[in-house]
Amino acid sequence: MRVTPARLSNWQQCPRKYRMTYLDRPTPPRAGARANATLGAVVHNALRAYFDLRVDQRSPERAAVLVREHWKSDGFAGPEQAAEYRERAQEWVRGYVAELPPADTPVAVERWVSAPAGSIIAEGRVDRIDERDGELVVVDYKTGRYGLSVSDARDSLALGLYALAVRKQFHRTCRRVELHHLPTGTVASWVHTAESLAALRERAEQLAAEFQSAADELSFGGDPEALFPVRTGRHCSWCEFRSHCAEGKQAAPDLPSWSALEA
Ligand code: SF4
């Protein structure tokens, strides 16, 4: 069973959302782009392009230009708000790369990894894989409005799965996982042990067994509403399927596509 962090997160957040995302065919039409997702994609794309440059072409100013070159305004309130956030993103990226050792070249950038981990195949796209002190390090960029703590890095199923897949795929030690929060320029870091990675793997296996069992029962004619119940909450305001979900619409207000940006 192939398991990505997105699948796990969708299942944990709301089984009905999981069903609409991966099982319902045709897939129900999704809501339009959200500004916070656009902003995150632009920063990721700019940083990928930055590390594609030769070392002697890299500089904070060049990184800021790459943000401009990759900019998109989908989901923003209008040109004024989009321009304000483009400048912010340029500042974040400029400041971020200024702190990086200029000659450092990652082992991989935006690399798809896939490897067996217990009863599942852990896979996904890793933002960056660094090498430090002879070990590989998983780096994940974040652009949300809230800073991140050590426990966010420690408890992240996504980072744990990436570390497991990187170890197998590269045949190297990979224990450290890091969340790099661009808006604050901070890093939340955790060094896993074999035991902590095994615990995350077991959690992922358990969740995967749940959604696979529900999918199997559905394919044998099971009740979709019972197998994939709604899990309502504040997140329903941002769910891309809320227009198809009466319970979600009732549970949380409809918010504009730029509402999740930093206040
Ligand atoms: S709106 Fe809420 S309850 Fe409905 S599918 Fe989305 S997350 Fe689930």
UniProtKB/TrEMBL annotation:
It comes from Saccharopolyspora kobensis. Pfam families: PDDEXK_1 (PF12705). GO terms for molecular function: exonuclease activity; helicase activity. Residues 2-245 form the PD-(D/E)XK endonuclease-like domain. This is RecB family exonuclease. The keyword DNA repair applies. Gene3D superfamilies: 3.90.320.10. It comes from the Bacteria. The keyword Translocase does not apply. GO terms for biological process: DNA repair. Keywords: ATP-binding, DNA damage, DNA repair, Exonuclease, Helicase, Hydrolase, Nuclease, Nucleotide-binding.
